[in-house]
Amino acid sequence: MNHYSIPLAKQELLHHMLQVSGAAAVHLHSLEQVIEAHFTVELTDAQAIIKVELGQHKAELTLRRADRANHLHLRDFIEDIANGRHESAEPRPAPACETLNTAALCQATLSELDRVTKQGGSFSPWQGAVVAVHAQDDHDGRTAVVVLGNATRMFCGGSSALHLELADHLIQHQAA
To answer: Cα(167)–Cα(7) distance, rounded to whole angstroms?
Structure first.
């Protein structure tokens, strides 16, 4: 069976939709293909009611609005539908960071990444790699430069979106 997952950079869309409500689509990637899930979010004072459609499968999820990890719960729910675990109640496999041998990225590197995307600064996640983030006190906009060996890439965005993009970029580079 394929293992479909939503890329880290696209999880910001889930977070955004849980704040504003509405309809959106998100791509799920596997090694062989990309599929698309459509979802709608309806917000009440206390709950977020999400309806997900993926091919012929339709499912509904209700979350407490106060939970700050709702975008992660929604990600897991959509991935479970795509991977056939929604109806079978199969347990989730180990996180991708373990299967890609990026355990260090998932722990120490992500906490450093969180620090620099919020406050600015730089760090080296591994030899030959440098992440530098410029942050301004008066707004959330950030600019990051990532050097991985001989390749340099620039990223811009808000602190949370930038954190997700940088983490996704580092995971992809480390997995390659």
So the answer is: 10
Please, how many CA atoms are within 13 Å of residue 57, restricted to the half-sphere of its CB?
18
pLDDT, tens only, 130-170: 999 998 877 778 888 999 888 888 888 887 778 888 887 88
Q: Alpha-carbon distance 84 to 11, whole Å? A: 20
Distance CA 6, CA 56 (A): 19
Mean pLDDT is lowest, of 38-42, 93-97, 172-176, for: 93-97
**Residue 172: helix, strand or coil by DSSP?**
helix
Across the beta sheet with 34-43, the strand order is 22-29, 34-43, 47-54, 57-64
Using CA atoms of 135, 138, 140, 141 in order, give the dihedral in degrees to the nearest 10. -60
Beta bridge partner(s), residue 38: 25, 53
> From CA 37, how far away is CA 30, in angstroms rounded?
14
